[in-house]
Write a structure and sequence with these properties.
about 325 residues; alpha/beta; Rossmann fold; 2 domains; seven-stranded parallel beta sheet; five-stranded parallel beta sheet
Length: about 325
């Protein structure tokens, strides 16, 4: 029998102690903190690596990984990995990106998009702040109901389709734009200009590619209704943040709910949108919580462990 593989895991599995059980019989699993120095120390003798989004696997770390044969990441996004350096070494990548059947069970990000929309439209964060101060000024926080409003979906993939289902449940008219043709009950396909012009709420569900960088720019904000809300649980670079800040400051749009902003890795306390949000009540920002639920993380980690186990077993045959 071949020697067990050594697997280095930087992902935080402490809330879910059983998720790595599929690897018990085929590998020795070591854990490390999700930081650059810990990776450099721990990865030297690892055959496989389970990634964390909090630690970038860069070219320096990959060069130190003398035995590394496979990287497994419990995510669809891959910008925490130096794919070029990994490919040059012939290292296999396992991710959730194309596991469509499994991903259909992960609804957390679409749910958060809805939470951000409701937070903006019903002014929940600012009403809660007032309540904590003992203020019970209901009329000050008058908001908007969803029924009868138009919900626009930019990117009608897995998460866009989920968001569309929620819109129908809230009795909203639902529009969607995608680069691919699609048909869906209760969802009206439209061009991008119509989406931005007619929607009361626009939710972004497109992947980040060179073509989608700054996909939402001054031109798009100029099309939006003055009372419209923009929600982004996708990637920060899809929006031109300078244009967004201008649209908020001038009340070109009514508000925005963001799960992602530029510069999430270093200190973001001086980020222009963070600074703006401290003194204005038309911007809600949360720290990239899209898939941060107990259920989604446990399911994703176990699924990743199972994929890695199957990879190791196939290598032993």
């Amino acid at each position: 029998m071949k020697k067990k593989w050594t697997v280095l895991c930087a992902a935080d599995v402490s809330p879910f102690p059983q998720v790595l059980d599929p690897l018990k019989d085929v590998a020795k699993v070591k854990t490390c903190k999700p930081d650059h120095d810990a990776l450099l120390r721990g990865i030297r003798d690892a055959d496989a690596y389970i990634a964390s989004l909090h630690a970038r696997l860069d070219a320096e770390v990959i060069a130190a990984a003398r035995k590394l044969r496979v990287i497994a990441t419990p995510s669809t996004v891959l910008d925490h990995l130096d794919l070029k350096a990994a490919d040059a070494r012939g290292i296999t990548l396992l991710s959730l990106k194309y596991d469509r059947e499994f991903l259909e069970t992960i609804t957390a990000t679409a749910e958060l998009a809805w939470a951000l929309m409701l937070a903006c439209l019903r002014r929940i964060p600012w009403a809660f702040d007032a309540a904590k101060r003992g203020e019970w000024t209901r009329d000050k926080f008058r908001g908007h109901q969803l029924s009868g409003k138009t919900f626009g979906i930019l990117g009608y993939g897995r998460l866009g389709a989920m968001a569309g289902q929620y819109a129908r449940a809230f009795r909203m008219r639902a529009l969607a734009h995608d680069i691919k043709d699609f048909q869906a009950e209760g969802i009206e396909p439209v061009d991008k200009q119509t989406l931005f012009r007619e929607s009361d709420v626009i939710s972004l569900h497109v992947p980040l590619t060179p073509e989608t960088m700054n996909l939402v720019d001054r031109k798009e904000f100029a099309l939006m209704k003055p009372g419209a809300i923009l929600v982004n649980t996708s990637r920060a670079a899809i929006i031109n943040e300078e244009a967004l800040l201008e649209a908020l400051e001038t009340q070109r749009i009514a508000g925005a709910g963001l799960d992602v902003i530029h510069g999430e890795w270093p200190d973001i306390s001086r980020h222009p949108l963070i600074v703006y949000a401290r003194t204005h009540d038309n911007l809600v920002i949360v720290p990239h919580l899209g898939d941060i639920t107990y259920e989604s993380q446990e399911m994703s980690l176990r699924h990743t462990a199972e994929k890695l186990r199957d990879f190791i077993l196939a290598d032993k045959e």
